[in-house]
Design goal:
The protein is an alpha/beta fold. It has a single domain, classed as Rossmann fold. It has 7 helices and 9 strands, in the order ββααβαβαββαβαβαβ. α2 runs parallel beside α3. The termini are far apart.
Length: 242
């Protein structure tokens, strides 16, 4: 991934304004990234994690209002991007260890800088993880909660993420995903149902009106986006593929 400069944008959360570090110039970053991969831009390898997206902000607000679990020891965020949601979860669950995971190793510097800015650097750890590979042994059945915001960009994500997530979770662990219901959403539900029981499904309107956030979308004329939030529970071994 290209080593573009970072910039800080203000994010209002829980009555306080926090800095979130993102890429300084997305268009320039995308040009550099395209050159780096020889012009072979695909949805499978999405460089958009350097931005802050509505699904992450929406989940951050929902978690603050309605905590799905009272006590957590290990949380894993898949497709963490700049690590905003991981920092939020570390704030909400001060006793928990938060593992922020992404395929793009260079996102680690964003995660580390945001964790420092939010005062949670001692509990947020970045790991480069490929969902297409077996889950790391140290994370097998280690997580009480796995979260993912906007993680279904490519068919390969649909194929691998549900199985990977269930490998990470303890027996009664929860998976919570947020998605703007793109055209893969129905198929994502089918794939998730092979490994998880759907507990709740909610729809939240996210306004795109915060300065410095989602300029990529605002520039295209979007004013708000509907975010769908799924809360799922890992099936017992005998229920898998049911």
């Amino acid at each position: 991934m290209s080593h573009q400069q970072q910039r800080s944008i203000p994010v209002l959360w829980q009555g306080h304004t926090y800095p979130v570090w993102v890429v300084e110039n997305f268009d320039g970053f995308l040009d550099d990234f395209a050159a780096e991969v020889g012009g072979n831009l695909t949805d499978e390898r999405c460089p958009f994690g350097v931005l802050l997206w509505p699904s992450s902000r929406t989940l951050a607000d929902v978690f603050a209002l309605e905590r799905p679990l009272d006590t957590l020891t290990t949380i894993v965020e898949l497709g963490c991007g700049v690590g905003f949601l991981s920092c939020v979860l570390a704030k909400l669950y001060p006793e928990a260890r938060v593992i922020a995971c992404d395929y793009e190793e260079s996102l680690g510097r964003f995660v580390e800088k945001n964790a420092e800015a939010w005062g949670v650097a001692d509990r947020v750890e970045f790991k480069r993880i490929d969902w297409r590979q077996p889950a790391p042994k140290d994370l097998l059945t280690a997580a009480d909660l796995v979260v993912g915001a906007d993680v279904f960009y490519d068919d390969s994500h649909l194929e691998h993420l549900p199985d990977f997530a269930q490998q990470l979770l303890v027996g009664n662990g929860r998976l919570i995903v947020a998605d703007p219901k793109r055209f893969r959403f129905s198929k994502a539900l089918d794939e998730l149902s092979k490994h998880f029981l759907l507990l709740t499904q909610a729809e939240v309107n996210c306004r795109l009106d915060q300065e410095g956030i989602e300029e990529f979308m605002i520039g295209a004329g979007y004013k708000e986006q509907k975010i769908f939030i799924l809360t799922l529970q890992k099936k017992a071994s005998g229920q898998s593929q049911g």
